[in-house]
Design brief:
The protein has 181 residues and is α/β, with parallel strands linked by helices. It contains 6 helices and 6 strands, in the order βαβαββααβαβα. It has one domain: 3-Layer(aba) Sandwich (Rossmann fold). Strands 1, 2, 3, 4, 5 and 6 form a 6-stranded mixed beta sheet that branches. The structure holds flavin mononucleotide. Flavin mononucleotide binds next to α1 and β3.
């Protein structure tokens, strides 16, 4: 039997104790149920410097982040929408990745919004993933009205979104296995 694939989660919120951190936790549970291994980068514990800041090119945390990305077979990006696009935390994380870390790997996308649903952040992350030669799956999730999107147990209230997440995890894991051959 082949090695399980490794899915790396990148959160666009600094703190994993956030809506996007929770989405990643749920999504990874689905991936693990399909036999994948998972890891989520924790910006709170290991913040990445801004690209180009003094000393950033030799930063040990950046190297660790890039090595983790190199070892991953697939990615899930989850970002809050800020002013109609991905957060600065997400953009800076993606700016630390180049095609040598991500080329030919499969990406999936999630986003949360304080207001109405929108595909802006998803589309912008899709463009960035394309620029680092990622294969982005068509399934994607936008969670609108985020303050009322989770119940007291931290589950998504919307059954449709819960089902979309299961389908997205299946597509990511199976798509990655197919590409790996
Ligand atoms: C600087 C800033 C800009 C925001 N811009 C938008 C926006 O353009 N559209 C929107 O629906 N919500 C906007 N919000 C609300 C966030 O999307 C919301 O707080 C976030 O999705 C919650 O996710 P989190 O718990 O992972 O931080 C904004 C919030 C902040 C702090």
């Amino acid at each position: 039997m082949s090695e399980p694939i490794l899915v790396m989660g990148i959160c666009g919120s600094y703190d994993l104790d956030s809506a996007n951190g929770r989405l990643l936790e749920m999504f990874m549970e689905h991936c693990e149920a399909l036999g994948a291994k998972t890891v989520v980068w924790d910006h709170g514990a290991k913040p990445l410097p801004l690209v180009g800041a003094e000393g950033s090119w030799d930063d040990e945390t950046v190297k660790e982040f890039q090595e983790k990305a190199t070892s991953a077979d697939a990615f899930v990006l989850s970002s809050p929408e800020y002013h109609g696009t991905m957060s600065g935390v997400m953009k800076n994380s993606l700016d630390w990745l180049y095609s040598k870390h991500t080329s030919g790997k499969v990406f999936s996308l999630m986003s949360t919004l304080g207001g109405k649903t929108s595909n802006n952040t998803l589309n912008h992350m899709r463009i960035a993933a394309r620029w680092i030669h990622g294969w982005v799956i068509p399934e994607q999730i936008a969670v609108p009205n985020v303050k009322s999107a989770f119940d007291d147990d931290g589950e998504l209230v919307s059954e449709e979104l819960r089902e979309r997440m299961v389908a997205m995890a299946k597509s990511l894991v199976e798509g990655t296995q197919k590409l790996r051959g």
